[in-house]
Amino acid sequence: MIELKSAEEIDRMAVTGQFVGELLAELREVAAVGVNLMDLEHHARRRIRERGAESCYWDYTPSFGRGPFRNVLCLSVNDAVLHGLPRNYALRDGDLLSIDMAVGIDGWVADSALSVIVGTPAPDDLKLIEATEVALEAAIDAAWPGNQLGDISAAIGEVSRRYGYQVNDEFGGHGIGRTMHEAPHVPNNGRSGRGMKLKPGLTIAIEPWFCRSTNKIKFDEDGWTIRSADGSHSAHSEHTVAITTAGPQVLTRRPGHDTRPGNRSGQSAATS
């Protein structure tokens, strides 16, 4: 069942989204060569606790994974793209790190992710991150009332093809609001003009992710971390978005957010 949120409820989700965006921006700055993934995890735990928020990841037990997830971040490095299990690993120069988090405040949830290069960026990795961010913005631009869900999916798929990447259909975006995962599923590829009509009050997490040279994935022994099947690097971008009569409202926009791919040196890649 799809629940449409009122303007007041969207405002309450926006409070959560602002915190998520601010914390992701913090984590992006904390991530540096030599920083341990567990340092990022504990930084996020402390900030979530101080805010009085609740992690949607802690004790999360989906059909995959081994036992409940006992962390507040998904930290995916290089060929890992989704659900990366935080571990004792010091970031190295050139690592491509994806950070994903979802929290709830006063019963309303927001979910967002970004990818960043630590230290010296490789041009291919910059291009990969750029593709996910451009795809995310294209999908947001398609999220107008009266359009259809397939328009969002098609926008992501079109960007992926333009950049030369394939799309994996197993994991995509989702509805969000009172819980982290609600209906509908939001595929990262599709046909425009198909699917449910977008109505004001619909709140969704849009999350394009691409692997550099494959659309196949594999799971680590931990049952959580998803990697590209061929070991190529991967990137992931995500925002929580509300469909409103005035157009799409991004609830998790980060302070100083730019649609071009970020790394700690501020460089960007060309689209070709």
UniProtKB/TrEMBL annotation:
<dbReference type="Pfam" id="PF00557">
    <property type="entry name" value="Peptidase_M24"/>
</dbReference>
<dbReference type="GO" id="GO:0004239">
    <property type="term" value="F:initiator methionyl aminopeptidase activity"/>
</dbReference>
<dbReference type="GO" id="GO:0046872">
    <property type="term" value="F:metal ion binding"/>
</dbReference>
<keyword id="KW-0645">Protease</keyword>
<feature type="compositionally biased region" description="Polar residues">
    <location>
        <begin position="262"/>
        <end position="272"/>
    </location>
</feature>
<comment type="similarity">
    <text>Belongs to the peptidase M24A family. Methionine aminopeptidase type 1 subfamily.</text>
</comment>
<comment type="function">
    <text>Removes the N-terminal methionine from nascent proteins. The N-terminal methionine is often cleaved when the second residue in the primary sequence is small and uncharged (Met-Ala-, Cys, Gly, Pro, Ser, Thr, or Val). Requires deformylation of the N(alpha)-formylated initiator methionine before it can be hydrolyzed.</text>
</comment>
<keyword id="KW-0031">Aminopeptidase</keyword>
<feature type="binding site">
    <location>
        <position position="100"/>
    </location>
    <ligand>
        <name>a divalent metal cation 1</name>
    </ligand>
</feature>
<keyword id="KW-0378">Hydrolase</keyword>
<dbReference type="InterPro" id="IPR036005">
    <property type="entry name" value="Creatinase/aminopeptidase-like"/>
</dbReference>
<dbReference type="InterPro" id="IPR001714">
    <property type="entry name" value="Pept_M24_MAP"/>
</dbReference>
<comment type="subunit">
    <text>Monomer.</text>
</comment>
<dbReference type="InterPro" id="IPR002467">
    <property type="entry name" value="Pept_M24A_MAP1"/>
</dbReference>
<feature type="binding site">
    <location>
        <position position="181"/>
    </location>
    <ligand>
        <name>substrate</name>
    </ligand>
</feature>
<dbReference type="GO" id="GO:0006508">
    <property type="term" value="P:proteolysis"/>
</dbReference>
<feature type="domain" description="Peptidase M24">
    <location>
        <begin position="13"/>
        <end position="244"/>
    </location>
</feature>
<feature type="binding site">
    <location>
        <position position="238"/>
    </location>
    <ligand>
        <name>a divalent metal cation 2</name>
    </ligand>
</feature>
<feature type="binding site">
    <location>
        <position position="111"/>
    </location>
    <ligand>
        <name>a divalent metal cation 2</name>
    </ligand>
</feature>
<dbReference type="InterPro" id="IPR000994">
    <property type="entry name" value="Pept_M24"/>
</dbReference>
<protein>
    <recommendedName>
        <fullName>Methionine aminopeptidase</fullName>
        <ecNumber>3.4.11.18</ecNumber>
    </recommendedName>
</protein>
<feature type="binding site">
    <location>
        <position position="111"/>
    </location>
    <ligand>
        <name>a divalent metal cation 1</name>
    </ligand>
</feature>
<feature type="binding site">
    <location>
        <position position="238"/>
    </location>
    <ligand>
        <name>a divalent metal cation 1</name>
    </ligand>
</feature>
<feature type="region of interest" description="Disordered">
    <location>
        <begin position="230"/>
        <end position="272"/>
    </location>
</feature>
<feature type="binding site">
    <location>
        <position position="83"/>
    </location>
    <ligand>
        <name>substrate</name>
    </ligand>
</feature>
<dbReference type="GO" id="GO:0070006">
    <property type="term" value="F:metalloaminopeptidase activity"/>
</dbReference>
<feature type="binding site">
    <location>
        <position position="174"/>
    </location>
    <ligand>
        <name>a divalent metal cation 2</name>
    </ligand>
</feature>
<keyword id="KW-0479">Metal-binding</keyword>
<dbReference type="GO" id="GO:0005829">
    <property type="term" value="C:cytosol"/>
</dbReference>
<feature type="binding site">
    <location>
        <position position="207"/>
    </location>
    <ligand>
        <name>a divalent metal cation 2</name>
    </ligand>
</feature>
